[in-house]
Predict the structure of Kynureninase.
Amino acid sequence: MSQGAGAPTREDALALDAVDPLGGFRERFTLPKDVLYLDGNSLGALPAHTPERLRRMVEEEWGNGLIRSWNEAGWYDLPRGLGERLAPLVGAASGQVVVCDSTSVNLFKVLTAAMRLRPGRSTLISEVGSFPTDLYMTEGLVPARRRLIGRDGDSLADLLDDDTAVVLLSHVDYRTGRLQDMAAVTEQVHAAGALMVWDLCHSVGALPIELDACGADFAVGCGYKYLNGGPGAPAFLYAAARHHDAARQPLTGWFGHAEPFAMSPDYAPATGIGRFLTGTPPLLSFAGLDAALDVWADVDLERIRAKSLSLTSFFLRLTDALGLPTVTPRTPAERGSQISLRHEGAYAVVQALIARGVIGDFRAPDVMRFGFTPLYVSHADVFDAAEALREVLASGEWRDPRFAQRGAVT
Ligand SMILES: *Cc1c(COP(=O)(O)O)cnc(C)c1O
């Protein structure tokens, strides 16, 4: 065994896969044969039946149904309908989730609505290490005095005060994979009289989420990562029912109107979660998420979590044997479904792995990120990926200048 004493073997991996209750889901995805895909946290894989769903929407609903499909094919109901199907994945009772727009746009809507629910307070707290679009969107908010954990104070407790209106945090950090204690943090924020907005981009589909039980106020999340909705899939938005009547989001388009087809010159918000909609949904990309949610209807999230932790723990044991430092918490309960390793040549090492068909990604400045999607990644895949990593490092092949060239998207 090349990894040295104590490191698990490929036989160990196969033994774990043999008793994997989620093993059967792999065949519900179409993946290239020569690829080990550890980037489903950035762009999820293609569900095998998605092309047929897309074909149906294009050829039958659009081609034949034409404008009649708004009613007859249920197009008009898709933002609310997909929200209902997604709700169990985030622990939300009916009527609190809609699918619409992008995560960035939905952040703007819920953050503005939340700020307006706390008149007299002007501070928004977030975290300096947040995914950049979350931080950039907070810069566009008016009014907001923004303070960042890790820059203006070390911790949330340092920054919370009686001017805090809203706290925005990622449930799982995109770079380190650290998982926040949603219940405890939400309680801490509420104790200061502020509202809590969760970004679920790196946790939805990776672990069970309990928005209602934790008392969360608002949340947003991605359709194209662990959910497998396809490139550019629409995002989703959660607003707790107790806020619906008072909440005023800023992008007051006709799809959020109480009576869009009354064509009134004045805006009046829909009752319920519908007031968070804005304009015409991009229906072709809704079809991809619609198909992806068929798979999720059959999934037990406790099993997802158990397998996710088994995969990440297995990878960590293998990479520990390589002496690679990790920025991901070692305590399983404190991490999402990824392992992030540091290496001075992280970018080139990731490129060398991709050349071998092992797809992970790089996050500045020196992090190699490997996402483990329990629906279609096996322990044997994890073993083979770690073995490829060992070879890339041992051979020094990552030092080849061609692996240093950067594309527009890293
Ligand atoms: C992926 C991701 C986004 C993506 O936002 P888009 O509007 O879809 O580009 C936002 N926030 C976080 C935390 C993410 O991980």
Remarks:
- The chain has two domains: 10-48+300-404, 74-297.
